[in-house]
Amino acid sequence: AHAGPVVRYNFQRPDRVSKEQMHALQFLHERAARNLSTSLSAYLRTTINLSVASVEQFTYQEFLGTLSDPTAFYSLSIAPFDELGAMEISPPVAFAMIDRMLGGTGQTAPPTRSLTEIEQNVTDEVVLLLIDGLADAWRAVASLSFAIRGRETRPRMLQVAAPNEIVCAVAFDLKVGDVEGTINLCIPTNVVETTEGQVSGSWQRQRRELTPTERAWLEENLSRVPVPVVPLIRTRLKTGAVLALKPGEVLALPLS
Fold this sequence. Notes:
Layout: H1 19-44, E1 48-59, H2 60-65, E2 72-79, E3 84-89, H3 91-101, H4 117-138, E4 145-152, E5 166-176, E6 179-188, H5 189-194, H6 196-204, H7 212-222, H8 239-243
Antiparallel strand pairs: 1-5, 2-3, 2-4, 3-6, 5-6
Helix pairs in contact: 1-4, 1-6, 3-4
């Protein structure tokens, strides 16, 4: 009997996640990118544009081949799963964000070297903001807790997954002012497979846009909501120095 046309199949890199699931992943991370563009812009006080460039299945070895070296590379724990994920921030935008956080314009040419220990510490703050945004986006699907497990400037120095392990790779285009680069996210396929029904469901339940009347009503009412603001200063100060602070004063923080 005629069985139809022959379809090429790579047994070394099978597609473990369906096309529908990949489309759902793209929708989920596009939503995360929109929210993160706003929070990163506020955090760095400059225009940030983040968008999903692609969502693909790779072996982990192939994923590593798409990254810069050296770069800003992080392994991520994804509770309650045992498998690790990974995130890379390409050097041009990593150095631009570091420059912004240290008082610069973020528009200078990036140096051709690895990040220093101090620069990695600064980049940690951006990664924490990014994984918080990812957790918010995934909350409609599953309650995941992302955390930094390790970091390196050479991606192959961190053990994240076996070379032939299939992973889902989400590539984001990132623009910091006029500087362009990428953020690459690696998600274990087990996370996607376990939450398969919920991921697809979230894609189908796209929220409709607010009408102008509804948006005006929300803005009018939210503008009357008091919002308490509490500063978080990650340093050590004497109690007397804190109590002596007055509005308008500039405080030179010690390093530790």
